[in-house]
Design a protein that fits this description.
The protein is of the alpha/beta class. The protein has 19 helices and eleven strands. A seven-stranded mixed β-sheet has the order 7-6-5-8-9-11-10, sandwiched between helices. A four-stranded antiparallel β-sheet has the order 2-3-1-4, covered by helices on one side. A hairpin with a 2-residue loop joins strand 2 and strand 3. Helix 1 packs parallel to helix 3. The longest helix is centred in the last third of the chain and has 18 residues. The chain is globular, with a radius of gyration of 23 Å. The relative contact order is 0.10.
Length: 404
Amino acid sequence: MRLHRNLVFTVIDALDFIFNQGEYADKVVAKALKKDKRWGSSDRRFVAETIYDIVRWKRLYAEIADVKEPFSRDNFWRIFAVWAVLRGYKIPDWKQLEGTPTRRIKGRFEELSKIRKFRESIPDWMDETGAKELGEATWDKEIAAQNEQADVVLRVNTLKTNVKSLQNILAEQEIRTKTLKAYPDALILEERANVFLTDAFREGLFEVQDASSQRVAPLLDVQPGMRVVDACAGAGGKTLHLASLMQNKGQIIAMDLYESKMKQLKTRAKRNGAFNIEYRIIENNKVIKKLHDKADRVLIDAPCSGLGVLRRNPDTKWKLQPEFIDNIRKTQQDILQSYSRMVRPGGKLVYATCSVLPSENQEQIRTFLKSENGKDFQLEKDHKILASVSGFDGFYMALLQKKS
């Protein structure tokens, strides 16, 4: 396996943007892939996968390379050399890679792989938090699963097509997919491909949405004609799923703090042919108060640590701080207390996060049910999804019903 200079230089530049300039890995990768129109699919795959790989294993590779942040350009080359040796590449005679100590790299890798925080390449505080909340054995498996590359899962837009038809359409473009038991609208790619370039995507026949995330909207038990509030809609993956489950009948009120997210959702909704969505920015409490006791269903896809989706957002490991988790727990409870008041008597609420920490999940529900606002609700069921068990993202979701 040969290394190509222009591809490797692109990787080094990208690492500088991510680690020294605080940019998000997905945005940096998207930009990097547009750098040279002459690159083929294997070139682009090398660039994307190498950047994500080094981001994912940063702590381990930096420890082996014996470099510390903030990284200089020379440090990035040393980290890259570690990656190349461990991936079995022949080290070329470039001046940046001169004197790469191949045997020492392999030896240090063996040594550090015995210590979980290095083996799984995570900060000390994250290792301690995960072990404390999930127990050593479960955390051991979960953090290992979170370091595996995530599958690409599609959610078929049933407003426009069905699973079989979409499978056939994608197969014509040599994109092979398989169905998933217990996930009626899901297709999983057999091999990675850029599905965003397909006509099927442009026509709104599917969205990319992990299988675990696809379990949230159905749990809300929506019916056509209902009034449903998606209270933390973001860019609207679950809003669009709700629209298709409701067959475009009734009303979905999609709410978020950020106008930019609502704009993204409007674009996606137009592509999806979802037209039963109303958009509201949460500028103040009045927006929520106007809906007190008015909604048949409320979805709270709460802001969280994201510790269930590290596979697809590996840079979260380095951007996340322990203080953020402390603060987000308070925000989660505040949101539950406030937004739950939109549920009418007899209506239902789903609280969901893409975290695996019980303190953001089961404990939040317990606290809420013991509170003044929560005493009118009862827990119908909840699901804790671990990546190590499901093979998909780590998630939590709880269905609550308000007493009539």
